[in-house]
């Protein structure tokens, strides 16, 4: 299946490069990833549209239900990233291994692994929709522990 995704991604990436003025979705997500690793909340939020929607896994953000996904809209999305760069979460974010791939004209996929090869290992995938050089939608998908 990975081979077919790569084959499909190439023409989509080429179309995206021609259709988008300025940064490609993968470039926007690469900037986002660098800002996350630095822990720079201002730079992180600069990548997001004012009306962005971020879907977070259950229990990620303080006050969020441990049984329901969180839906954070607009400026409220800041809560997700403030959590991910806090002292408890940032060591994993800072050291995570990641790869970014185009998945459509305005879509990028970020595959990531934190604490690879340890008992703390956690991995997942984020899906981003980027329009006008801003992230308008992000789903954070964490894979179940093995």
Outline the structure in words:
By secondary structure, the protein is α+β, with helices and mostly antiparallel strands. It has five helices and six strands. The protein has a six-stranded mixed sheet. The chain is globular and about 40 Å long. The two termini are 21 Å apart.
Looking at this protein, list some descriptive labels.
6-stranded mixed sheet, about 150 residues, disordered N terminus
For the record, give the distance between the C-alpha atoms at the N and C termini, rounded to a whole number. 21 Å
Beta-strand content bin: 25-35%
Oligomerization status of the protein chains: single chain
Major sheet: size, sense and barrel closure? Answer: 6 strands, mixed
Cα radius of gyration in angstroms: 15 Å
**Approximate shape:** globular
Contiguous low-pLDDT stretches (5 residues minimum) are: 1-20
Secondary-structure element order, N to C: HHHEEHHEEEE
Biggest sheet strand order reads: 2-1-6-5-4-3
Question: Which bin fits the share of residues in helices?
Answer: 25-40%
- Overall average pLDDT: 85
Helix count, DSSP H or I runs of 4 or more residues: 5
Structural class: alpha+beta
How many strands appear in the DSSP assignment? 6
Short description:
By secondary structure, this protein is of the alpha+beta class. It contains 5 helices and 6 strands. Helices cover about 35% and strands about 35% of the residues.
């Amino acid at each position: 299946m990975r081979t077919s995704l790569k084959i499909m991604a190439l023409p989509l990436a080429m179309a995206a490069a021609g259709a988008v003025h300025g940064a490609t979705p993968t470039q926007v997500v690469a900037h986002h990833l660098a800002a996350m690793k630095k822990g720079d909340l201002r730079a992180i939020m600069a990548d997001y549209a004012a009306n962005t929607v971020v879907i977070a896994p259950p229990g990620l953000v303080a006050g969020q239900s441990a049984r329901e996904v969180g839906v954070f809209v607009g400026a409220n999305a800041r809560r997700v990233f403030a959590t991910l760069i806090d002292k408890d979460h940032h060591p994993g974010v800072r050291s995570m291994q990641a790869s970014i791939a185009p998945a459509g004209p305005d879509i990028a996929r970020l595959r990531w692994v934190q604490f690879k090869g340890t008992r703390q290992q956690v991995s997942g995938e984020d899906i981003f929709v980027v329009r006008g050089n801003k992230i308008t939608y992000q789903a954070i998908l964490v894979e179940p522990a093995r």
